[in-house]
Specification:
α8 crosses α12 (228-241) and α9 (152-162) packs antiparallel against α10 (167-183). This protein has helices at 2-27, 30-52, 57-64, 72-79, 88-95, 98-110, 112-122, 126-137, 152-162, 167-183, 206-212, 228-241, 273-278, 313-318, 325-338, 357-369, 383-395, 406-413; strands spanning 150-151, 192-193, 251-255, 271-272, 282-283, 295-299, 308-311. It is mainly alpha-helical. Helix content is 52%, strand content 5%. It has a five-stranded antiparallel beta sheet.
Length: 416
């Protein structure tokens, strides 16, 4: 009798489960049902590619256990294009906030013994590493935010399966993520990251993690999620392997002389700091450049009305972490503030808003119509576009800073 009772109970549970599934499906719209089917088809079909890359079936099944559908929030974030774009001044106000400076200085003291070792091995200054940590995860605080942290496998599979623009990225990162899981660096329960798969205190995507991960404490594993020395050593290794120049800084805020020739902005061939000084360029903080023979390039991130910087090769090494001028400036300025440098001397123009991709395309079309070749209509304000702006500004008697701003777009649209 007990056996029959167990059998009956199993039957009742089976029927109840089946009814629950049917009820759920009846409330799901056609698009949701298709979405699940598409995702499951991807998971099934991706196995041969993973197997070819050296992923075991056990790892593959463990990675996708319990993941039955795409993450809609990942696709929302991937498609998000804000109408309001922050100015570089607004971005840096957050990146180099007083709170971030204060916490960063505390981290320099707290982790000094490990930073001593990491700096000695890599040649990368400790303040730069702590600045990156602050920029990437606010010293690990974002890792405790459930609204931000996601399952790495599900996020990357969602991009691989369902995002036409990031599908290739998602597939390559998904393979790398499963390699990390397979070698046992992190348990599946803690294998978390951003919507795009950036992981840990120093926010490495899986392929970069595999290329640069560093075991600071010698325990045989790399853990950038909970082991802060490993996270800082991994960031240092990325910069070191991308040819960080020990003993050199990232750049200097400078003041330009009256009547400065803006054609020298963004020059590809750098000049020595001594040469810039001969042209009347001065450090905003006062004093001479400590290494006058170092070569530097002049940039004006917000045009002639904003701060000016002479950047050195290490600035471009920082951009290997995140290829954005605003990000590299954030790391550089924050790193200087952590060791006592004053705030920037110049202020950022609050009324000079950056252009969206669509606005850059419009700017490029207008320049081309007036005979100034922007190097293509692609929505990217690269060197060709800046050169075209500079030539146009020069012809119109404007400061030829080459800055793709709303002001120059409005000037063009009004027939200037």
């Amino acid at each position: 009798m007990p056996s029959r009772t167990r059998s009956t109970n199993r039957s009742i549970r089976f029927v109840a489960a089946a009814l629950a599934v049917c009820t759920a499906l009846s409330f799901a719209g056609p698009s949701e049902a298709r979405a699940d089917a598409t995702f499951q088809k991807f998971v099934t079909g991706f196995w041969p590619q993973a197997q070819k890359a050296g992923i075991s079936r056990a790892t593959y099944d463990r990675a996708f256990a319990g993941i039955t559908e795409r993450d809609p929030e990942v696709l929302e974030k991937a498609a998000y294009q804000p109408e309001f774009v922050k100015t570089i001044g607004e971005y840096l106000a957050t990146a180099v906030s007083d709170a971030r400076i204060e916490t960063g200085r505390e981290m320099l003291v707290k982790w000094k013994p490990w930073l001593d070792r990491i700096e000695a091995r890599s040649g990368v200054p400790r303040q730069v590493l702590v600045a990156i940590w602050g920029m990437e995860s606010n010293y690990g605080k974002v890792l405790d935010n459930p609204a931000v942290v996601k399952n790495v496998i599900r996020s990357l599979a969602t991009l691989a399966c369902c995002d036409p623009k990031r599908g290739k990225f998602g597939r390559s990162q998904l393979i790398a993520a499963m390699k990390i899981l397979q070698r046992g660096d992190v348990p599946l329960s803690r294998f978390t990251g951003s919507w795009a798969g950036a992981m840990g205190h120093t926010q490495f995507i899986p392929t970069s993690y595999l290329a640069f991960s560093a075991d600071a404490d010698g325990d045989g594993k790399v853990d950038i999620w909970t082991n802060i020395p490993d996270a800082l050593a991994t960031a240092a290794n990325l910069l070191h392997k991308n040819k960080w120049r020990t003993g050199e800084t990232w750049g200097y805020e400078v003041v330009l002389p009256q009547g400065f020739n803006y054609a020298r902005v963004d020059e590809k061939a750098g000049r020595t700091l001594a040469d810039w000084q001969k042209m009347g360029v001065r450090r905003a903080s006062g004093g001479a450049f400590p290494r006058p023979d170092d070569k530097a390039t002049l940039i004006l991130p917000a045009g002639a009305r904003g701060p000016a910087f002479l950047i050195l090769p290490n600035f471009n090494v920082i951009k290997r972490y995140n290829n954005a001028t605003s990000y590299a400036l954030g790391v550089g300025i924050l790193s200087d503030r952590l060791i006592g440098a004053p705030p920037l001397a110049a202020t950022w123009p609050a009324d000079m808003r950056p252009l969206s991709g669509a606005q850059v395309e419009e700017l490029q079309r207008l320049l081309a119509q007036k005979g100034y070749d922007p190097g293509g209509i692609d929505g990217m304000a690269g060197p060709g576009t800046r050169d075209a702006i500079r030539a146009y500004q020069s012809d119109k008697g404007l400061p030829a800073d080459g800055n793709p701003s709303t002001a120059i777009l409005d000037f063009l649209k009004k027939g200037g």
